Amino acid sequence: MNNSVYILEDRSIIYINGADAKDFLQNLISNDINKVTDSSSCFASLLTPQGKFLYEFIVVKHKLGFFIDCEKNQCNEIFKQLNLYKIRSKVEILNLSNEFVVASFGYKKYLSIEGSKDVLGFTFKYREDPIILDPRNKNLGARLIINLEKLYLSLKKLNLKDDNVDNYYIKSHKLGVVPKNLNQLQNKLFGIECNFEELNGIDFKKGCYVGQENTARIKLKNKLSKRLLPIEVIEGKLSENEKIYNNDVEIGKILICDDYPFGLIKYQDKNFDKNQTFKSNNGSFKIMIPEWLKI
Question: Does pTM top 0.90 for this prediction?
Answer without folding.
Answer: yes
